[in-house]
Every structure is written in structure tokens, then in C-alpha cells.
Amino acid sequence: MNPFRSWPRAAPTVLLAALLVLLLLVVPDRLAPGDRHAGGGAVPTPDPGPLPGVPSGFFTGSDEAGVRRIAGVQAWLGGDALSVGHTYLPGDRWSNIEGHPALFGPWARWKAERPGRLFVLNVPMLDRNEAGLPDAEVRAGLRRGAAGDFDGHFRVLGERLVEHGLGDAVLVLGWEMNGTTYSHRCGPDPTAWKAYWRRVVEVLRGVAGQRFRFDFTPSRGLDAVAWPRCYPGDDVVDIIGMDAYDQPAGLSFEEQVTEEYGLEHHVRFAAAHGKPVSYPEWGLFRNGDNPAYVRGMLDWFAVHRPVYQTVTDYCPHGVWGCADNPESARIVRRALGAPSDRS
Predict the structure, then answer these.
(1) What's the structural domain count of the chain?
(2) Which position has the higher pLDDT, 80 or 158?
(3) Containing structural domain, residue 252
């Protein structure tokens, strides 16, 4: 039965008016100026809702000033959303990889101020970590590590963390190993890299009083080497993370999900190994102020419930410490801010 046949002759006018009303109800009245895919198309998606139950943080610097800046971000957000403190050990020399009271002290005090706070520490696996060492030298370093030559440095690190009340830290060991930025990269010798990771975890788990969790975190996508080739084994990994910046130029968020070794591959790999996921680093990059990417990431977190997520907050990545990204900042505030900021 056609329900429109019994309408009077005036029905076309009535129908047209009804359709116009319907369009006004379902089509957004405006798009934010920067609300576009990296590829240029408008994205009429709603702002993400809040992220209850997803521990969140901002990286604002490794030193004591970085710790203080967290309060500034929290004031900007309103409420009490930030519970993750994330920092990095310098990788220039072994004495810095062992850690120092000057670095651990401020973070220990921040963590002790409120129960439930999480401390995340990126730990280099080799010294001269950003010195651009050639593959042959990296390979030799990985093999020395696997043989136990550097055990003492990691034992000192573990003991110092425990002494400062940070014995339950999440340790992001040898991050972005699938790329070429760091000397602790996997590509020159994946077999030695995995054996070295296992050795470091064994040493750190042997420290009295520790409850460390170890986070295996490649960068998103196919970099210099496919990151699953570097996975050291379920018995020495607690969390499978991913650093996921908005790059390369022109790549939409949807393509970041579906690309080879991208976000979808990450969550499927973690599920297959019975591990939760994390996102230690994410932020804007090659596509400027891109709310579509930020919305996509926040919605991804809401669905996949990571152990934690941390915004990298300095230019060009950030939204609090970088005035160049106002539209993306608005999205983050809506997701992480106090309820009064979400209206």
C-alpha cells in the first residue's frame, strides 16, 4: 500500500515543507572552520563526549617545570580529568638512563598527592639514543645488551624508581623501535632486539618492591620495519601501545585506522595476545589544526578503552601549549573538561 495515494492535492506542498523541516533537524547548522579531513572534505561529525574511565594525561615537559604545567592544563580543562604523568629519561648517556632524584622527585610528589595517579616513563635501551648511530653500531649495542652488558644500568634504574615510590610505573621500553629516530631501533637486528628487551625486563622484575608494567609501543603504520617483527613475547609485555601522530600530510583519520600496521591492526594484535592497549603519544602534526583527527582519536579511545592516553602538548602537536590549533583544542576541552565545559 502506498500511504501517499490518499493525500489531497495539496499534499506535494505539505510534503515539501515536511522535508525541509526534517533537513533542518538532521543537518548540522554549521561546521567549525577547521573541521575538515586532511584530504579537504567537510566532516559533519558531532563533538566527542567525555572519556570516563580512560586515564588521561598531557606531556608538558620532563623537568620540574613540566610537572607544574600539568596544573595549568588541568585549570584550562576544569574539573579533575588528568591522572597520568608521562615523562622520558634522557638517552644521551647511561648515567641519565639510570635516573636521577632531580627527575624522579617532582614526579613522585605529584603522584603521591592523589591516590590513583599513574606514572609513565619512557626508557631508552641504548645510550647516545638520538645520535644517529649507523646500523652496525646499533646492531653491536643490541647484541651487547642481549648478552647482559648493560644489566647494571637497568638494575640501578629500577632501584631508584622503587626508592622514590614509583615502583608501580608503566615503563615504555625502547619506544618507536620500528622507526629510525632512535639508536634503540629494532631494524638492524630484530632477533637481538627482542632478546635484549627480554633481558631488561628480567632485570627490572628482579628489583625488590617493584610492580612495573612494560609497554611495547611502536609508531603507527609501516615505518622502517613492520613492528610485529619486534614483539618480544607475551610473557615480557603487559601493555601494547602505539604512538599515533597525525601524519603523513593528506592522510585522513580513517586511513590511519585502516593502513597497514595502523590503529585497527594494533587493537587486533593486542586482542590476539590478550593485552590491553595504550597511546603514550598522540597529537597533531603534518595536517595542521585538524579537529577530524582529534575527534577520531578521542572516539577511538572511548571504544577501545586504553590503559592510558597522553597528549603530546607542545607545538606543533599540542592543544594547550600551542595556540596554532584552536579548533582541535576546543574538541579536547569538550572531551576532557569539566561538565560545565561540555554544554
Answers:
(1) 1
(2) 158
(3) 37-341
